[in-house]
């Protein structure tokens, strides 16, 4: 942990970019991963004004903007193999694909869902072959919908391959494919469950390999650990849970760590909420990031018996931080929030951007739709 703490202690603001409209929130961030962009990565951000904007990571200049009005977009993801292709789920029952090579145009392709689908989460498999989106609950149903993810120019829309409908009974807030195994996908819901599926199986019952219960409402999930055999979960009431899926078929406990409210278990920093987490591959460490409503960001190290404070990043944001992305290539961090600022943090950097903008907001005006559920803690093998 000493090596990691030393590395993170040198993070400073390298660049900042402010939205033209100071009321615009930055809700999600992704960074291109394809090999041809080793020296010039592109950043995609999802904004509260229903736009997706692309930035050059090094200069923080805006390259392109896409507008989804009247639909509401949820999440933004680059293709893993083509940095020109960007995906986002939409409340109009589609997943939209945008082509950065086409200026000022609408979506290059739409993946259409079933009638009444409202997509609020999605992801793309690591080989770009499968797109999966999660829906809001309608009547008694919440769906995971799947499509062939391969881009076919001149094809306006693509119909689903199929769907799962039995494994969640409330809004599906998270879909996360495994980083290296394209057949595994984890999903989280306001029903409290985090499910893991093997989509190579022929039906939903066989595909569901494990179910973890957060005892709350799932906000964010992610993969961690060597070979990414672990799953972590952040809940809407600031809980943190961490499971080892390698122990599902053994007598060993599957729960590595569980805390109902991280704010009551951390000393050395002021945390009002959890932003997100990421797995640091080289250090084999799971990190969480918590925020204060004044804009400070605290980095937390997760051990099997405790979560400890490593570093607090100050002098950047002036309001609630909504999104982040850790760039493993150069150990940099992208953050965005309710102060309409996109920040790039790098080791030993010096900020040469214009002076930060003070926030005009007293509190968040965007409220998440949350229905918290209290259920018994279970973990079952469904095969």
Per DSSP, what share of the residues sits in E-state strands of 2 or more residues? over 45%
How many strands in all?
30
Would you state the CATH class?
Answer: Mainly Beta
What is the alpha-carbon Rg in Å? 20 Å
List the domain count as a whole number: 1
Q: What topology, given as strand order, has the largest sheet?
A: 6-7-8-9-13
Ends: how far apart? 38 Å
Any low-confidence stretches, pLDDT <50, length ≥5? 357-383
Principal-axes geometry comes out as globular
Instruction: Give a short account of the largest sheet.
Output: 5 strands, mixed
CATH topology: Methylamine Dehydrogenase, Chain H
Structural class: mainly beta
Whole-number mean pLDDT = 89
What's the CATH superfamily, by name? YVTN repeat-like/Quinoprotein amine dehydrogenase
Share of helix among residues?
Answer: under 10%
| CATH structural architecture | 7 Propeller
